[in-house]
Design a protein that fits this description.
Two copies of one chain form a homodimer. Helix content of chain A is about 40%, strand content about 25%. Chain A is α/β, with parallel strands linked by helices.
Amino acid sequence: MIGVVCLNPALDITHHVAAVDWAGVNRPSAVYARPGGKGLNVARTLRAIGAEVLVMGLAGGVTGAGVESALGELGVPAAFTRIRGETRRTFAVVDGRSGDSALFNEPGPRVGVDEFTAFSVMYEKALGGCAAVVLSGSLPLGLAADTYARLIEMGATAGVPAVLDAQGEAMALGAAARPAIVKPNLAELEAWAGRRLSTERGADRAAVAAAARELRAAGAQAVVASLGAQGLLAATEDGGWQAMPPAAVAGNATGAGDAVAAGLAHGLVLGRPWDERLRHAVALGTATAAAPVAGEFSPADYTSVLDAVTVHREEARR
Amino acid sequence: MIGVVCLNPALDITHHVAAVDWAGVNRPSAVYARPGGKGLNVARTLRAIGAEVLVMGLAGGVTGAGVESALGELGVPAAFTRIRGETRRTFAVVDGRSGDSALFNEPGPRVGVDEFTAFSVMYEKALGGCAAVVLSGSLPLGLAADTYARLIEMGATAGVPAVLDAQGEAMALGAAARPAIVKPNLAELEAWAGRRLSTERGADRAAVAAAARELRAAGAQAVVASLGAQGLLAATEDGGWQAMPPAAVAGNATGAGDAVAAGLAHGLVLGRPWDERLRHAVALGTATAAAPVAGEFSPADYTSVLDAVTVHREEARR
């Protein structure tokens, strides 16, 4: 079983409106509400590829209850610690005329120390049944920046490797706690390195590889940088790797990075060598970007992309 | 106890955003979620003036559960029949820069015949404890246009008078079922009459009075037309009446009509004569329009406006 930690889940509500009146009354032609937040995307992808998962998170209020019941309907097992605050909503309005989307992200609840303690007790017990844990997404208000670091250490004590997908201080402190894999995207890696790693043509592969090696030296056992249509670049105990999707896929990047994290965790649990691990992760990310609904993918796309991904060892070492 | 029927409640979510990016990501500075729908506004106003109320409605899904729990927190007793569909949300975005609001109204659930039957059984039982019922707001999909008419007839059988605040066919059929009071606003009365009742300067009082008498002749025991800042105009068994607020109140009309309906129902139950009934209804509507939050009011405003309302018998009979 793969444990997926989701401390700041969301209910994602989307309204499609034929032609939005931004100063008047609108009647959406379609309304969608689905559980969101990076961790839940990871869990849904893992579930879709047949992995056993357990979502572990914090949920509060009627929105939290909504997230729980929606996950249940999707067949994703979850154990939420109830909190006093109200789980956040995100609200997207898609304007059929312009094609623009406006997104409104609620700040989410503040989590109390006692609530995180209750979560930790549950998490520690659940670790006994986990082959790996994925720690993904933003930390809610009230939790210390070293929260992921502490959860990674608890995993290490129980012999459970961790995949970390976070940003800023939470990623920096988490990486120092020696997770099996850290998965920053380009912007997150640039923020950590404190310098640009790209040109106007996209990611500068040599610069990204250097920063990935530095993040690895800072504690992560492996670093996989996700570069969108430019694929993945990894610094691992087995050297540097590059994995490229077959062609630039026009699509919806939302959730593609989460699908990559899911693929990496799955490969870790299966003991796949790095080339296969990266191949599957790229294929999942690409299939997710190609899907019309954010965070979903077509299994046929996944399979067809899989054979077309090119993976090779990084040649230019510095 | 006053029963308030709310067949299509809502969860009203409001996001305040300093300067909205209608094609990007926004982080609201304030988020409000409160139970909405005209019936719930009526019930909250009745509760605020000390009347005993029972909300009777239909609620489904996690949004329905959210409406129920929010009403509980507000101290408004409610008995909801659970439905399979999901209770609707309304979503308002208030742009701090322009002052504009965009409103997104979900269509709401479709109600099954079996679900309305379950509601009717509950409603019929509850009538035994009601001194009056208020039937307010739109009918959800799936319910026949004569739904309010049937509920009014069930009330009459139990000796419970009804106040009807609806529009279109639901109002027309409902009025024919002889409710104690029908409360259309100007637009609703114009739609029923099939002709304009206003000039560019506002409502044409003589024309409104004539239409109100016609609606009364069509079955309603009394008709009270709410004309916003122009007050109320009533056709009753005790003749025609006009009630005017002290001065044009600039404010938020949302919920003011519901406060008027609450005031009329309260006056009906207390047996107030028409002049006092209308005086209180105008004061509640005016205080609600003056409040910064839609559908709420300051008791001090209510009291101070009460003495300043002018009520007189309609002089021009035709």
